[in-house]
Task: structure prediction
Amino acid sequence: MTLMAWLEQQVNLKNDSMGLLKTLLKEKYWSGEVEIHPDNTITFYAILSISMVADTEYNIEHYIVNLQNITDIKEAHQRIERMAFYDSLTGLANRQLAIEYINTTIKHHHRHNTFSSLLYINIDRFKSINDAFGRKTGDRFLKKIAEVLQKILRDEDNIARIGGDEFVVATQDSETNLEIATRNANKLALKISNALNHQFIVDDLKLHSSARIGLIVFPSSQEDTAETLLINADLAVSKAKELKKRHKIHFYESILTEEMKSLRQLEHELNDAHKKGEIHLFYQAQMGSENTLYGAETLVRWIHPKLGFIPPDKFISIAEESRQILKLGAWIMYHAFMQAKKWAKNSKDFNLSINISPIQFHEADFIDNVIAILSETKTDAKNITLELTEGILISDTESAIEKIARLVELGFKVSIDDFGTGYSSLSYFQRLPIHELKIDKSFIARVPESKENVAIVESILHLANTKKLAIVAEGVESKEQIEFLHKRFSDILIQGYYYSKPCHASEFEKIFLRNPSEKQLELA
Ligand code: C2E
Ligand code: CA
Ligand code: CA
Result:
């Protein structure tokens, strides 16, 4: 039997055997890594060394073959490699491997003038699942998501988990036509969005998943790198979040980068906006039965010197993300408390509602800060309602309940704002010493036309009734809405454009406080 025939029987030479023979004849020695398969199921790895013993005339006398088993080392290496490049929870590629793959793909496309796509997938409400049911359930939920993705994608498409609830798919296409590449990307995103719109049973819980998807077809320029593509796709995901459509899918456009830059600029300018007198507090009336004034909600406004009015929906989220809301929120509280004190002088039951951001509320020294502002402004807490959102109960529920109890002890009323829109568990509800529910304006809209909204509003009114809670309907714009609400809950408080838009304190006084009887006549 020749050496090669013998070797082929024993081991799997990964290198070509011609190379081995050439080296052996030239150097009289060869060494390399081989695999050994004693049967179909087992693989050993070994270093094979072959020395050739020949006489002076090059007649081969014999070979000395040495096999060193390196299976342990090899497996350890593979494990380390997996740990460095694969996500241990789902077994998918991790961020680092995704970056390497995308960078290689970019080079390929530049050479061949082709395109493929990158899909950035963000799972909705994952944080609340984690917070509400614990990390282990969250992990199992993510594993299910990973399985769904693996099932519907082709083997060649690369899927990676690059963050807690963030997955990336880099397709294997090599499309010369940008339009077709774009269409394909959109089709794939729809397929993923459909597949992820799904209910999983995890730990006996029914958890519904859905996703937002940011899309990018690349390369879009010579400057593309995996990092910039991921940043851009992530921006597209943020945009997808705002969509009201069933499929939250958004393509990246360069305007998103511009928007991000202007957001960072706004964040910078917001820092001292209140010191420059650009932040104003507006007040919107809350009316009781028979058009009597109950109080007002404080709504913050930013009048930017160049950009003009910036809605709070926009800048409050900037302030929250950058945590500037802590400083801004304290500033709002101070001025609103002062206003409440002023207005309570003439009408002692006047109530001023103030929105409290969850970021503010969750701070360890929140209660201390409220106490400090209360004593500094010498305001009576009984004239103030603090509006909190259901979201604050999701994480750290016990401490949230305790804080609410402390606020009530201090004399404040506590209201749950945007009631019905959150993900809160009604089981905690029993233990909350709250005073009021605010029905979100999205439910009040299209009442009484929309049967669905009518049903929601009626069930909230029913809940408020049984729990003896006050109730505010916000976003009330028409007489029909008021009649509908009064019929079902005679003590309901009404807030909305029907009575007044939020306005400056001086205007509020003019309309509602100087001559209330006149207003009453006008509205009657
Ligand atoms: P919100 O607390 O739910 O406030 C009610 C929003 O509904 C206000 O929008 C108000 O102007 C608007 N609104 C009132 N009546 C009507 C109506 O009849 N029709 C319609 N279509 N809208 C009506 P605004 O002032 O733009 O505030 C938006 C959100 O910004 C607030 O929602 C609140 O979440 C936040 N916000 C406002 N001021 C503050 C604040 O001082 N602190 C914090 N943390 N958040 C604030
Ligand atoms: Ca509010
Ligand atoms: Ca609200």
In short: Confidence is low (pLDDT under 50) at residues 516-524. The chain has 19 helices and 21 strands.
